[in-house]
Design brief:
The protein contains twelve helices and 16 strands. By secondary structure, the protein is an alpha/beta fold. The protein has two domains: 122 residues, Up-down Bundle (Four Helix Bundle (Hemerythrin (Met), subunit A)); 227 residues, Translation initiation factor eif-2b, domain 2 (Rossmann fold), CATH 3.40.50. The protein has a seven-stranded mixed β-sheet with strand order 6-5-4-7-10-15-16, sandwiched between helices. The mean pLDDT is 97. The structure holds 5-S-methyl-1-O-phosphono-5-thio-D-ribulose (MRU). 5-S-methyl-1-O-phosphono-5-thio-D-ribulose binds next to α2 and β9. It catalyses: 5-(methylsulfanyl)-alpha-D-ribose 1-phosphate = 5-(methylsulfanyl)-D-ribulose 1-phosphate.
Length: 366
């Protein structure tokens, strides 16, 4: 019997109310469910990318606060929760969902008079974050579907060719995903499509996660090396680029996995639309200039110097791919300026990547 919930999702509470996540470090070689029992385990899971992707990071951190509330001393619970908030907030810097979800949890516990009440309020809030993400991603799918349908109508029965980078699918969210929701909904409607999956060095979210996810859902796809996109675009083999974002500015700049910017440049040069599918939870309304204001994570250089995978004998191994003492740098994200983005697909619809576009869909943020 599968330990995974049906329909598939990335995070859930089991019958004992334990926090369960799919371990994204060991995919696709092993499907392993982990229990996260403490705030420290939640921090570790986010920091080391056992869970990753902006919405999933935020939701996991929210349950981290619930776990902190359950473990807090009766006489000092508010202080414990403030410490847990600051601790989890430092786990990763780029995805804004981490801090917005944590701030939402803080608002929930600050309104409480007792620890028991705070435990309940935190649980309610974390559950709400998860429920909202599922609904939001579904809606993104409905709006993104229209774009895929328009392209399909021009293709005379040929598959719509989509290129994606990193994993902004279900594995970065709870269910559906942002880029994968339109894809799943298009497939369900019988639209022919095919996805070019960038492997996404150095953590290989494309080859390890997107390829696995698409296999689970029967999405026709081909894995390509990160540098192949430009060539495919020059040969009319890409109809649209569709990626996610970790933080979007009020002006429509987007920070996404390192290498996204180069795809946007190649798309511009080849007149190919470049779309970003995002839940509004990844918009940071407090900033305007992505290049200046979005903190870019720099991770351990060992992630660049080593690759891991299965040998021909099926053994898991990690091998060095450069001389022993080669120094490396590992920038996790880059910023694609709004001028290179054809449009943003949100849960409220499609808009231009601009202040006017975003404020038109979210007038309450003006
Ligand atoms: C819907 S997930 C959107 C982004 O978070 C995703 O594209 C991404 O860049 C994730 O980076 P990661 O370093 O794997 O957390």
């Amino acid at each position: 019997m599968s330990v995974l919930p049906q329909p598939l999702r990335t995070l859930w509470l089991n019958a004992q109310e334990e926090l369960q996540v799919i371990n994204q470090i060991v995919l696709p070689h092993k499907v392993q469910v982990e229990t996260l029992s403490t705030t420290q385990e939640v921090y570790w899971a986010i920091r080391n990318m056992l869970v990753r992707g902006a919405p999933l990071i935020g939701a996991t951190a929210a349950y981290g606060i619930w776990l902190a509330a359950k473990a807090a001393p009766e006489n000092d619970w508010k202080n414990s929760l403030a410490l847990a908030h600051a601790y989890l907030r430092d786990a990763r810097p780029t995805a804004v969902n981490l801090s917005t979800c944590l701030d939402r949890m803080r608002a929930a516990w600050q309104a409480c008079y007792s620890r028991a009440e705070a435990i309940q309020a935190c649980r309610y809030q974390a559950d709400a974050i998860v429920k909202e993400d599922i609904e939001i991603c579904f809606q993104i799918g409905q709006h993104g579907l229209k774009i895929i349908e328009e392209i399909a109508a021009r293709k005379n029965g040929q598959p719509v060719q989509i290129l994606t980078h990193c994993n902004a699918g279900m594995m970065g969210c709870i269910r559906w995903g942002t880029i994968s929701s339109p894809i799943y909904q298009a497939l369900a409607k019988g639209i022919k499509l095919h996805v070019w999956v960038d492997e996404t060095r150095p953590r290989n979210q494309g080859s390890k996660l997107t390829a696995w996810e698409f296999e689970q859902h029967g999405v026709p796809h081909s894995l390509i090396v990160d540098n192949a996109g430009g060539h495919l675009m020059q040969h009319q083999l890409v109809d649209m680029v569709l990626v996610g974002t970790d933080r979007t500015t009020r002006e429509g700049d987007v920070a996404n996995k390192i290498g996204t910017y180069l795809k946007a440049l190649a798309a511009k040069d080849n007149n190919i639309p470049f779309y970003v599918a995002l839940p509004s939870t990844t918009i940071d309304w407090s900033i305007n200039d992505g290049l200046k204001e979005i903190p870019i994570e720099e991770r351990d250089s060992e992630e660049v110097r080593f690759v891991d995978g299965l040998t021909e004998n099926g053994q898991y191994e990690k091998v060095r791919i450069c001389p022993e003492n080669t120094p490396a740098r590992n920038y996790g994200f880059d910023v694609t300026p709004a001028r290179l983005v054809t449009g943003l697909i949100t849960e409220r619809g499609f808009c231009a990547a601009s202040r006017e576009g975003l404020e038109g869909l979210f007038p309450e943020k003006k």
